[in-house]
Design goal:
The chain is of the alpha/beta class and about 850 residues long. It folds into four domains: about 210 residues, no CATH class; about 80 residues, no CATH class; about 190 residues, no CATH class; about 180 residues, no CATH class. It has 18 helices and 24 strands. Strands 3, 5, 6, 7, 9, 10, 11, 12 and 13 form a nine-stranded mixed beta sheet that branches. The longest helix is centred in the middle third of the chain and has 64 residues. The N and C termini lie far apart (about 70 Å).
């Protein structure tokens, strides 16, 4: 793979190495690095560099166009190169040589079979080069590293502190069974001798572990070096950006490989270095590991219609954009100065106060995002709490229903089918409650359901697809539970490491199968059991609740994770502001590292803005029935964000023009066959209002149908005239009805049906006097709120109940409903806004 092309526009640090004023510490954090770009022959002032750190996904030894070139790199005390892939060029010599002309090492031969290499200034590592994988040019390649300014001492060879050259010669063979070998040697003038086994050594190049070109774990001192941790921050940051907004699948796949490698490196510290627990570097490794695992395990989230209407996000986005624009303007001036003057350090010192102020603005920026998402999170968790209570009630009711049904079952086949459906419903309940319980019981319940369905055979065949969906949901819930634990405590990072990769959530078709197949199997159960309509309705309720809870749990997980990362970024901004404000000339020893951090901060701010734009975009798509689009853009810069803002405003105008004005309409929908016993128990009755032509109580010529408010009343007389419609009675003379919307719903755009998913679907409350029909509680919003919050469409699955806890329903009874299978009807009057299409077809004369 040509990584130089693949990663061309992926590097976040846009300060060219040859434009920097070199300091004692030089850090290069990129996805792709050519070592020839660090050749001292091309770099002015490279002799000042004492410590060089290169952290990348891919490091190429020599450009393909340069043959037999010996690269000379800076670094007199330490040179550390870490990468996932060390790449030999596809053309040129099979042997690649890297010279370290300023590196000062000392080699001491202790005895016949033992020697020691030490670094200058008491550093543990003089040279450490690690590639998790090596991509060879041919079946056999050689990588030589020379340190020509070394000091050599060996009584065996009559050498005492003489200048010489240390060399590491690594031969890598791709052929099966071949052994990768590394030989250390010392050279004096033109005479050389092999250094005996060196351990430990300050001169380590591709330390060997096995014969399949796989190398040893990176030493903990290297991983936890602040400059290496910063490199991980940089490349992880790139991975997060790519996941959110990069349009190329190839780059997304390549960056995913890098994330997996990062996870392995960090796990070495987290799992094996318990003595570091509580230290700053250990905690940073924990936080990085949590973020890396989330990049690996959590997929791209789909577009979800938010609680607020499109226009309500404008103020916050404009404020965020202004902060980002100010910071970006400062950074552009900073980079322009570097390009024009080829200098960094002195200018950075002058600008530190300005950047410190910008970092404080960034802290406020992250706080604003956290505050906004926290409100959504509170709403989602409150909804989950309500659903959990309902699911627990339904689960207890189903257990009782199972006991009652077992007593009435006659045939073996029916008994097996009953066990299958109750096992499936129990698994649905466990998955629905997984967010609350931590998901511990969900996998076992799903496995048990699969076994019960297999035993039931052909009669329960329809449930097999439901079990498959449940298996996917169990994996989803495992990741959700792991994220929940991670954001609560970094110490729980192991849970997300052990969790599977999150599969895609079920599609709308899958959810239909999920609910309908359970209902279909329930319909086939024996009718001799008492209150059959009630328990069949409860089967539907459990399925519907499981669907709602699963979707809500994933939304909560996404919100929790974003808030957690924003909190980390806010803390970094605060400490960075303190650091910049207190900086002194003596502290300016790592110019590129500071430029890297500033560039990271700029782009992190832009990704926060992009996430908010994505929320607004989802509201925009729903507001004007536009075709859903992915907000993908690269490179992610302030100019790009400005263009996206303009595009969103333009889309809003075009959408408004295309749709035209809406009008107010009223439509009635009668919900029939509601079991009276279900209402008396305070349980839900689920029904659907379809969106398709010929199936809906709403004319198909209505498009963009939105509920303003609704009324609910018990039907007084049957349409056929002969049937009795059972009426409720209460001690208060009033009745309270709750109508709960579903997360997934539909709308119309001309002849096209559009599907949406809500962050938090709406619930409608209504109460009225039974004698007069006069409303005592309405759901008609004030004008202010009508233009603030998202409005639902009627085309979804609804759950209707007479809440037992409502004071209006005290003493609820249906005096005329004496049969156990009695049913009743409720009419819902929808007051909606809609756009009525004009039919321009001309009638043809016969």
């Amino acid at each position: 793979m040509d990584y130089s092309t693949l990663y061309r526009d992926l590097n976040q640090v846009r300060v060219p190495v040859d434009r920097a004023e070199f300091s004692e510490v030089m850090v290069i954090h990129r996805m792709y690095v050519r070592l020839s770009d660090l050749d001292v022959g091309e770099l002015v002032g490279a002799e000042r560099v004492k410590r060089l750190y290169v952290f990348a996904d891919v490091v190429e030894l020599v450009p393909q166009t340069v043959w037999f070139r010996q690269i000379q790199m800076p670094g007199s005390v330490t040179v550390i190169i870490l990468c996932r892939l060390l790449q030999f060029p596809t053309v040129g010599s099979q042997a690649e040589t890297l010279q370290l002309p300023f590196m000062r090492l000392q080699a001491i031969v202790k005895e016949q079979n033992r020697s020691e290499i030490t670094a200058a200034d008491g550093m543990k590592w003089g040279t450490y080069i690690h590639g998790n994988e090596v991509q060879l040019r041919s079946n056999n390649s050689r990588f030589d590293v020379w340190a020509p300014r070394s000091i050599i001492t060996s009584a065996i060879h009559n050498v005492l502190n003489e200048p010489g050259r240390l060399a590491s010669n690594t031969v890598i063979a791709r052929a099966q069974g071949a052994v990768t070998t590394t030989r250390m040697s010392a050279w004096l003038s033109h005479q050389g001798f092999v250094l005996p086994t060196v351990s430990p050594t300050a001169f380590s190049v591709l330390p060997l572990q096995s014969t399949n070109v796989s190398f040893t774990s990176i030493p903990v001192e290297v991983v936890t070096d602040p400059n290496i941790l910063l490199g991980m921050q940089t490349t992880l940051h790139i991975a997060e950006l790519v996941k959110v907004c990069h349009p190329s699948p190839d780059i997304v796949s390549a960056v995913a490989e890098h994330a997996i490698w990062l996870s392995k490196v960090l796990l070495q510290v987290v799992q094996n270095e318990s003595q570091l627990q509580g230290t700053e570097s250990y905690n940073e490794c924990l936080a990085l590991l949590g973020r890396v695992q989330s990049v690996i395990k959590m997929g791209r989230f789909g577009s979800v219609v938010p609680q607020l209407q499109y226009r309500m996000y404008g103020s916050l986005i404009n404020q965020m954009a202004q902060v980002a624009q100010n910071y970006d303007r400062e950074f552009k001036q900073f980079k322009l100065f570097i390009i024009q003057n080829q200098i960094l350090g002195s200018y950075l010192l002058q600008q530190n106060k300005a950047f410190a102020d910008r970092e404080l603005q960034m802290e406020s920026f992250h706080s604003a995002v956290i505050s906004h998402r926290a409100q959504e999170l509170d709403t989602a968790i409150a909804k989950m709490d309500r659903l959990s209570l309902q699911m627990e009630e339904e689960n207890r009711a189903m257990e009782q229903a199972e006991k009652e049904m077992n007593e009435g079952l006659r045939r073996f086949q029916n008994e097996q089918v009953a066990r299958a459906i109750f096992s499936v419903l129990r698994a649905v309940a466990m998955i629905g409650l997984a967010f609350v319980t931590g998901g511990a019981t969900a996998p076992a319940a799903v496995a048990s359901a699969g076994q019960a369905v297999s035993i039931a055979g052909q009669a329960a065949q329809a449930l097999r697809r439901v079990v498959e969906i449940l298996e996917g949901l169990a994996a989803v819930m495992e990741v959700v539970a792991a994220v929940k634990e991670l954001v609560a405590s970094l110490e729980q990072v192991g849970q997300i490491v052990d969790a599977p990769e999150m599969p895609d959530m079920p599609s709308e078709a899958d959810w239909s199968i999920f609910v309908n197949e359970i209902e279909a199997v329930a319909e086939g159960m024996p009718t001799e059991v008492s209150e059959v309509p009630t328990w069949k309705a409860k089967c539907k309720n459990v399925a519907a609740l499981g669907r709602e809870m699963s979707i809500t749990a994933v939304q909560i997980s996404e919100l929790q994770y974003h808030i957690w990362v924003q909190g980390l970024m806010r803390d970094i901004a605060r400490s960075q502001a303190d650091r910049l404000a207190a900086i002194q000339p003596v502290d300016l020893t790592n110019y590129l590292e500071m430029a890297t951090q500033m560039d990271m901060r700029t782009t992190r701010m832009l990704i926060g803005l992009l996430n908010m734009l994505r929320i607004q975009n989802a509201a925009l798509m729903y507001e004007y029935l536009l075709t859903p689009m992915e907000l993908t853009a690269w490179p992610l810069e302030m100019d790009t964000m400005a263009n996206l803002l303009i595009e969103q405003e333009n889309s809003a105008l075009l959408g408004l023009i295309q749709l035209g004005p809406s009008s107010d309409f009223t439509s009635r929908h009668v919900v029939k066959g509601i079991p009276v016993s279900l209402l008396l128990d305070g349980e839900d009755w689920e029904f659907e209002i379809p969106v398709q032509r010929g199936m809906s109580s709403f004319p198909f010529s209505w498009t963009r149908v939105r509920i303003r408010h609704l009324e609910m009343h018990f039907v007084q007389e049957a349409s056929s005239g002969g049937e009795i419609i059972h009426q409720p009675a209460t001690q208060t003379g009033t009745v309270y009805i709750l109508l709960q919307g579903s997360t997934i719903f539909h709308d119309r755009r001309r002849d096209e049906v559009m599907t949406f998913q809500a962050a938090d679907p709406l619930n409608y409350q209504y109460a009225y006097r039974l004698d007069t029909g006069e409303a005592t509680l309405t759901n008609e919003p004030s004008e202010q709120f009508a233009n603030t919050f998202m409005q639902m469409t009627p085309f979804t699955r609804w759950r209707l109940r007479l809440s037992a806890s409502a004071k209006e329903n005290a003493g609820l009874a249906f005096p005329t409903a004496t049969a156990p299978d009695s049913t009743t009807e409720i009419v819902i009057t929808f007051h909606v806004t809609a756009i009525r299409q004009i039919d321009w077809r001309q009638e043809v004369e016969e």
